[in-house]
Amino acid sequence: MRLLASDFDGTLYRDQKIDPADLEAIAAWRAAGNFFGLCSGRAPLVAAELLRKYQIPADFIIASNGAAALDRNGAFLYRKLLGRKPVGLAYKMARELDCISVVVNREEGDLRICSFTDPAQSNITPAALLRLPRLLQFNARFATQENATRFTARVNAEIAGITAHQNSVYIDCTVGGVDKGIGVAFMADHFQIPEAYCFTIGDNRNDLPMLMRFHGAAISSGDAETQRQTGFVVPGVAALIQTLLNE
Questions:
Q1: Which of 11, 17, 112, 207 has the greatest number of CB atoms lying within 10 Å of its CB?
Q2: Each residue's pLDDT tens digit in the chain (247 positions)?
Q3: What are the residue boundaries of the structural domains of the chain, listed by start?
């Protein structure tokens, strides 16, 4: 038995759709006795809804960049939560760098959004957001990649107890030490799969912790630096699965 964890946005989900060939390949992978799951920066309840919407045959979900994991039925297996203080510091820093919006994943797995350019998109005020006690993830979106990179560097250097993961102009912040690699390691232990039999696929830099720790493949349409560091590039999920099944 082997395990494959796939990023969602930009990897399994590209150009606003999922290739039917990828879904067929996932079904074949699981029919051969292997495990498949999503490993996404999306909030837990959002990721679970994506499984249902696109009828993705998955055994698990790793959500919020490794801050939570769910079984195939959407039940939480674990949650790693941020405290209020580091979220407040990250919020202040994001506003100093002119972020467009912030989004938080609540402990319950849903979203609260605060937009600074389109208030109609907001479902919480800044003051109320900062009073939320226990969060899975704090996300900030910037107008430029330069400011996003500056924010990532400052958070990781200056705020204790929090880790920032950059995905272009979107920055996802989790409790310190949590990343997608941690999530995949948990699922490998959960299913009793040796790490040597675990495979991952992604498209951007927030995927690197799982791509570098396990057998990683980068999507050819994704971030060039992620491809360079991973060293193994494939056109899509189906291509990777076909390679693995033919071994």
A1: 207
A2: 999 999 999 999 999 999 999 999 999 999 999 999 999 999 999 999 999 999 999 999 999 999 999 999 999 999 999 988 999 999 999 999 999 999 998 877 778 999 999 989 999 999 999 998 889 999 999 999 999 999 999 999 999 999 999 988 999 999 999 999 999 999 999 999 999 999 999 999 999 999 999 999 999 999 999 999 999 999 999 999 999 999 8
A3: 3-79+179-245, 84-175
Q: How far apart, in Å, are the Cα atoms of 163 and each of 41, 128, 132, 151, 173?
A: 13, 23, 19, 11, 5
Compute CA 219 distance to the chain's CA centroid, rounded to the nearest angstrom: 15
**Helix pair angle (237-245, 20-31), 10° resolution:** 30
- The DSSP bridge pattern shows strands 17-18 and 35-39 to be unpaired
- Residues 121 and 56: beta-carbon distance below 8 Å: no
Q: Which two tokens stand for residue 164?
A: 């920032």
Reported as type and span, the H/E element at residue 180 is helix 180-190
Output the CATH code of domain 84-175.
3.30.1240.10
Contact between residue 32 and residue 3 where contact means Cβ atoms under 8 Å apart:
no
**Domain 3-79+179-245 adopts which CATH fold?**
Rossmann fold (3.40.50)
Say if CB 199 and CB 190 are below 8 A apart.
Answer: no
The answer to whether domain 3-79+179-245 and domain 84-175 are alike in fold is no
Retrieve residue 195's tokens. 């790490």
